[in-house]
Design brief:
Blueprint (H helix, E strand, L loop, with lengths): L4 E2 L11 H6 L5 E6 L3 H13 L3 E7 L2 H10 L4 E4 L7 H11 L4 E6 L4 H10 L3 E4 L6 H12 L1
Helix pairs in contact: 3-4
Length: 148
């Protein structure tokens, strides 16, 4: 994908607005946010809190705490940073081991394909590059819709 997202090759999207699709869902998608940057973590938490179809269930500043949170309160989605302590592929694997039904989305400043491939191979469903023109909420909703 050239818009700042990397997903497995089999991934497709539809022309229907993802915001519209989630508004029609009866359930709310639970989310955990893990980033060591307080400002990024708080901004993501605020965006999730403001969206009616998403519910923030917790935040973490490193991969270990994110995995522990996912183990105790398994979310539908976990958004994780690469360059935080115990982040990247370690965080993806730890979260999926603790909560196998959680879909992991990586939100990173790293834009190289090799890193993205490693994250996807570790089990991430989507990689979003920080600062890209991707609407994070739409991307989360799209990933959540693929879960059903």
């Amino acid at each position: 994908m050239s818009d700042g997202r990397t997903a497995p090759a089999a991934s497709t999207s539809t022309s229907t607005s993802t915001s519209t699709r989630i508004a029609r869902r009866d359930d709310v998608v639970s989310v955990v946010v893990a980033d060591d940057d307080d400002q990024v973590r708080d901004a993501l938490a605020d965006v999730i809190d403001e969206h009616g179809g998403l519910r923030l269930i917790g935040t973490a500043a490193d991969g270990e705490h994110a995995a522990a949170l996912c183990a105790t309160t398994p979310p539908d989605l976990a958004i994780v940073d690469v360059m935080m302590p115990h982040g990247g592929t370690e965080a993806v694997r730890s979260i999926l081991a603790a909560s196998p039904t959680t879909t992991v989305v990586v939100y990173t400043a790293r834009s190289d394909r090799r890193t993205h491939r490693q994250l996807l191979d570790a089990g991430a469903s989507l990689v979003i590059v920080k600062g890209s023109d991707v609407d994070i909420v739409d991307a989360l909703v799209e990933v959540a819709d693929r879960r059903t």
